[in-house]
Design a protein that fits this description.
This protein is mainly alpha-helical. The chain is built from 7 helices and 3 strands. A 3-stranded antiparallel β-sheet has the order 1-3-2. α1 runs antiparallel to α3. The two termini are about 25 Å apart.
């Protein structure tokens, strides 16, 4: 099924379930049997416990259906994310990879001075790598006092920090 149709079907299913919940709450708040109710509402009030069980069961079915409809799309997105990450790393040198991995391990943001503590990394080498990554559009650098904050670009942060 086309992705747009799956999303539309999921929205319809969730909307229908919300409507059923509204009916359940409405029937529960109606006055007891024997008052001024229409025959249709009288049946709803009489059997409101059964309706609650039915709506709970339908909720489980709707949840499973929405999960089934959306899981394939989420898996496809995960594969695309992995491909983007692999493509990015293919164009980086070993030192660049170690710096980017360290930034990823620190949640997408770190200080340049902390990168200089990596194995086989000096302050000058860290500075040059960060400058190269900034020029490539992978990171952004922001001075904070005498320190330099190095952060992954937002669009890459969403892809690279995804678990």
């Amino acid at each position: 099924m086309v992705s747009g149709k799956r999303i539309a079907l999921s929205i319809i299913l969730v909307s229908a379930f919300i409507f059923l919940i509204f009916i359940m709450v409405f029937t529960y708040s109606l006055p007891p049997k024997g008052s001024f109710l229409e025959p249709m509402f009288d049946a709803l009030v009489t059997h409101h416990v059964e309706i609650m069980v039915l709506i709970g069961t339908l909720g489980l079915i709707v949840g499973a259906l929405v999960y089934y409809l959306m899981s394939e799309q989420l898996e496809k997105q995960g594969v695309q994310t992995k491909a983007v990450k692999e493509a990015l790393f293919r164009f980086l040198s070993m030192d660049d990879k170690s710096v980017v991995n360290e930034i990823i391990n620190r949640g997408g943001k770190t200080y340049q001075a902390e990168l200089a503590h990596l194995p086989n990394m000096s302050r000058l080498k860290a500075h040059r790598i960060v400058a190269k990554l900034e020029h490539s559009g992978i990171v952004s650098v922001r001075p904070i006092g005498k320190m330099r904050s190095v952060e992954l670009k937002e669009e890459l942060k969403m892809v690279l920090l995804e678990k």
